[in-house]
Amino acid sequence: MTAGNLPCLGITIGDVAGIGPEITAKVLLQHPELRRVCRPIAIGDADALARAVKLIGADPSAIRKLAAPSAASNDPRLLELIQEGPALGHVTPGMSS
To answer: Which strands sit side by side in the sheet containing 63-65, from one edge to the other?
Structure first.
């Protein structure tokens, strides 16, 4: 199957102050085998994912915002994202708000 024929899989990043963004970053950047069966797309906040990508020792420039799921390239070096809602970079991880 070519990348364009694979189904898109939307993965919500969870609470931006929790561990969800880090888990999402690890799965999408460290498990390229996932891309043989789908085109994974993170759904959530780019700032939270950038922070998580740094935490796992990866390059935040790997994050690519998409306008639509159909734009997903399925490149295993990228963490493709649909930004949902306003930016939440001001939210402190590990703190309830």
So the answer is: 8-12, 39-44, 79-83, 63-65
Q: Are 45 and 16 a contacting pair, CB within 8 Å? A: yes
- Residue 51, Cα to own-chain centre: how many angstroms? 11
Name which of 86, 49, 80 is nearest 65 in CA terms: 80
pTM: 0.86
Sign of CA dihedral 15, 83, 69, 64: negative
Per-residue pLDDT of the chain (97 residues; tens, 9 = 90+): 566 689 999 999 999 998 999 999 999 999 999 999 999 999 999 999 999 999 999 999 999 999 999 999 999 999 999 998 877 777 777 767 6
